[in-house]
Design brief:
26% helix, 10 helices, 329 residues, seven-stranded mixed beta sheet, alpha/beta, Enoyl reductase (ER) domain-containing protein, six-stranded parallel beta sheet
Length: 329
């Protein structure tokens, strides 16, 4: 498709807002070695997309400007680069793109073949596009970091998931229940019933004193905390942790990294551990298969047209959603 143009959404500088997103024509990318070209059927937004546009990850991200944002896509492969053996033109897929380069909000995108997995027909493009960043983070925090066995063979575990309104929290609730954990979730009051519908055993209004204190309604202490919320002081977490309780912070800040180092130095059994996403195709494939089997679902907050991205971008910035925001060409 060399020489052809496509529509995409981009911004030319950091620090702006929704009005700085422009719907433009740019060349269709060409897949290089070990890459695939995907005709995008759906893309999802993540909170980090907004943070990157605001310059919150400079100088690492964005790597270049103009930037086409978005890392989570689903669509159909239309071409493959040299060296690609496990994927062919015509395959329906889900792919995760690099945060540094983005590219998801476009009609076509190039993705690494080793971060692209087959999407079965039972999983829609919108459902598939919601999985990569958020689903992978929830899976990594619970399994690789916290050691939860999703087949339910582990010991009984009490888990707190903060700010479960966000998509990482949505997936974390569902995955934790596959591990037969007792799940307490905090979320906005308007999302309590939705969190319960995903399987949470207890849901606390995060705007109330008990919610802000992270208290379990049944008085349980937490073996594992998946912290999806805003920075929270150790003094709030600590009284509600079990003797070996661990907090896994999926939005680490300098203060949380400092707290982690301090607890390591003092050999404390209670720890706050930052989680940095490590994208693995086998984990993404596992999540897509769970979606096919109906064991995990992508919660979709709303859908927008790629040609009018401003409202979707503004809603993502507000951080008052439950689930994923989807854009479709």
């Amino acid at each position: 498709m060399a020489g052809k143009l496509m529509h995409a959404v981009h911004y030319t500088n950091c620090g702006g807002g929704p009005c700085d997103l422009k719907y433009v024509e740019v060349p269709v990318p060409t897949p290089k070695k070990d890459e695939v070209l995907i005709k995008v059927e759906a893309a999802s937004l993540s909170p980090i997309d907004w943070v990157i546009q605001q310059g919150g990850w400079k100088p690492m991200f964005p790597r270049v400007l103009p930037q086409i944002p978005g890392t989570d896509v689903a669509g159909e492969v239309v071409d493959v680069g040299s060296g690609v053996k496990n994927i062919k033109a015509g395959d329906k897929v889900v792919a995760m793109l690099a945060f540094a380069s983005g590219g998801g909000l476009a009609e076509f995108v190039v993705a690494k073949a080793n971060l692209t997995v087959i999407r079965p027909l039972e999983v829609s493009a919108a459902e598939g596009a919601g999985i990569p960043a958020s689903g992978l983070m929830a899976h990594q925090a619970l399994t690789d970091s916290a050691g939860l066995k999703l087949d339910g063979t582990g010991k009984p575990t009490n888990i707190l998931i903060t700010n479960a309104s966000e998509s990482v929290g949505n997936y974390a609730i569902q995955l934790a229940k596959l591990g037969n954990a007792h799940v307490t979730a905090t979320c906005a009051p308007e999302h309590i019933d939705l969190a319960k519908s995903l399987g949470a055993d207890e849901v606390v209004d995060q705007t109330t004193p008990d919610g802000q204190a992270l208290k379990s309604p049944s008085g349980k202490n937490y073996d594992i905390v998946i912290h999806c919320g805003e920075p929270t002081s150790w003094s709030i977490f600590e009284p509600h942790l079990a003797s070996n309780g661990k907090i896994f912070d999926v939005k680490p800040t300098p203060s949380s990294i400092k707290a982690y180092a301090l607890k390591k130095l003092t050999f404390s059994k209670k720890q706050l551990i930052p989680v940095l996403l490590s994208c693995k195709a086998e984990n993404m494939d596992f999540l897509v298969k769970l979606a096919k089997e109906g064991k995990v679902k992508t919660v979709i907050d709303s859908k927008y047209s790629l040609s009018n991205p401003e409202d979707a971008w503004a809603k993502n910035a507000e951080n008052k959603i439950f689930g994923k925001i989807i854009l479709e060409p």
